[in-house]
Amino acid sequence: MKIPPLQIGKIIVPLPIIQGGMGVRVSLAGLAAAVANEGGIGTIASVGLGDIEQSKRDFDGVSREALIYEIRRARALTDGPIAVNSMGVLSNALDLVKTLVREGIKIIVSGASLPLRLPEMVDDDSVNLVPIVSSGRAADIVLKTWSKRYNRTADAVVLEGPLAGGHLGFSAEEMEDLEGHSLAVLLPKVLAAVKSFEDKFGRRIPVIAGGGVFTGADIARLLQAGAAGVQMATRFVCTDECEVSREFKQTYLDAEEKDIVIIKSPVGLLGRAVRNPFLRNLEADTLDKISCPYRCLATCDVANARYCIALALSNACQGNMEKGLVFCGQNAFRIHEIVSVKALMAELRAGLEAYPEAT
Ligand SMILES: Cc1cc2nc3c(=O)[nH]c(=O)nc-3n(C[C@H](O)[C@H](O)[C@H](O)COP(=O)(O)O)c2cc1C
Q: Is the CB of residue 331 below 6 angstroms from any atom belonging to ligand 1?
């Protein structure tokens, strides 16, 4: 099919692919810039960027400096569009959003809870606000709230389905019915929800679908179903440019389908991860008791949490799999090699081009 460019506000990219934010130093400047250089949108995840030891001293300051460092590093590597993923559940979310706006970032993608207050954190109209939702109802709630409170709408919406990696916006019961919550089922509902706000604000609100997207043909099917683009994360982990540890990537390469599991995260959401030594220790209840010097999450119930998720994700990023939580999408087991971002983007582009036009 002919590849339609993706437009978010004034930003236009030739390949309708956003590399999804992956927190705690999985999607950093190197990966985001490489994707932007290949015609997509790269995303730096703002959560957990600071050195975990130094963060004990000054969590907000260390996080802020680390975000500034990553944004400037990306800028040095590309002129293409770089987004930043923010999470409203962070105790320092406001500080990070203000920082990325000051650093000139023009796309904020916000997930892990409905970003109902995002517009009041950003007083620059040229910054594109992109909420992540998991249902038509959630899209409606966010857009209604933004319209009523701030007289503004989203510049795009990411629909994240139940096959995604990291934290998920679905309940345990919903996860029992993956078919009923597939992107094919959810996308028309989200398109319908944004339609009335497109009419009200007189502009298009592109819907970007993600969660389990693996091939160019997957992308083509979603575009033909009305998506303006896709958000993909898992496939970008096993690229040369992803700066996570070799052990993290190897965990994906070694994973079989049965190893990919749903966990309950201390954030209060379900998440998807590879069952590795850390998760086996968690099941066996042999983990150390936690103490929390950071208070990084507004929603973390520290007294009852069985582990510190920031520390567990950071350990995985550094290659300590006995103590590391490895988030992944449902399709991680289908990855068999580490490739360059250039090769991955070329493969996806070729798959899209080879897909027949809708009749
Ligand atoms: C390792 C990993 C970490 C992630 N971290 C975040 C995050 O910090 N914030 C967020 O909004 N989404 C996060 N996600 C979700 C991705 O941005 C993306 O939307 C989703 O994984 C897409 O599905 P896919 O991985 O099957 O392509 C993460 C996903 C993975 C695999």
A: yes
Over range 209-230, report the average pLDDT.
98
Least confident segment among 119-133, 276-290, 320-334: 276-290
Residue 16 tokens read as 């309708």
State the CATH class of domain 6-243+337-354: alpha beta
End-to-end CA distance of the chain: 11
pLDDT for res 113: 85
Question: Which atom of ligand 1 is nearest to 331's Cα?
Answer: 26
Question: Which residue ranges does the chain devote to CATH 3.20.20.70?
Answer: 6-243+337-354
DSSP reduced 3-state for 256: coil
262-306 pLDDT, tens digit per residue, is 999 888 889 999 999 999 988 887 777 777 767 787 777 788 888
Whether residue 142 has its Cβ less than 6 Å from ligand 1:
no
CA angle centred on 298, ends 134 and 156, rounded to 5°? 30
Sequence-distant contacts of 281-288: CB under 8 A, at least 24 apart: 281/322, 281/323, 282/306, 282/307
pLDDT of residue 214: 98
| Residue predicted with more confidence, 337 or 306 | 337
- Separation of alpha carbons 64 and 59, rounded Å: 9
Contact 81, 42 (CB under 8 A): yes
- Tokens read off for 115: 């970003």
Rounded CA gap, 318 and 352, in Å?
Answer: 35
Beta bridge partners of 82: 42
Residue from 122, 75, 73, 117 nearest 96 by CA:
122
Query: Strand 11-13 vs strand 6-8: parallel, antiparallel, or unpaired?
Result: antiparallel
Question: Which residue's CA lies nearest to atom 13 of ligand 1?
Answer: 22
Please give the structure tokens belonging to residue 44.
Answer: 């730096």
Yes or no: say if 2 and 357 are a contact pair by the CB < 8 Å rule.
yes
Quote the CA–CA distance of 79 and 120 in Å, as a whole number. Answer: 28
To which H or E segment does residue 25 belong? Answer: none
